[in-house]
Design brief:
single chain, about 120 residues, three-stranded mixed beta sheet, two-stranded antiparallel ribbon
Length: about 120
């Protein structure tokens, strides 16, 4: 990966961190500290999720989510307990968020129960 692609990725991580900071005021959201392998911390830290960010011409959404699980823990409950998400942006298109359906349904259930009590 060239310097331009790395810079583009880092800029995207900063932008996603800023969006989470706006949404989660006072949560201490920041861009995650990255080692050379990138597996020590999520791309955006201080959120209720393990966030993996990807941006490019045609980023692989499934690979981004798999990377979040590899870095943050396996599908079997080992590692970081936060739900894993991939925040992906194709050039010229709106960003998307991808997560496993079970994690999404847990969020929907929690949201539903809070609104109906």
């Amino acid at each position: 990966m060239g310097a331009m692609q790395r810079r583009k990725g880092h800029d995207w991580e900063r932008k996603v961190a800023a969006m989470f900071r706006e949404a989660l005021a006072d949560a201490g959201v920041k861009r995650g500290w990255q080692s050379r392998s990138g597996g020590d911390a999520p791309d955006v830290d201080g959120t209720p999720f393990w966030v993996e960010c990807k941006r490019g011409k045609k980023p692989n959404i499934r690979a981004a989510l798999a990377q979040a699980y590899e870095a943050g823990g396996s599908l079997h409950g080992c590692g970081d307990p936060r739900p894993k998400i991939a925040v992906v942006k194709d050039d010229g298109l709106p960003a998307t968020v991808t997560m496993h359906l079970d994690d999404f349904l847990d969020l929907v259930t929690e949201w539903w129960e809070r609104g109906n009590k």
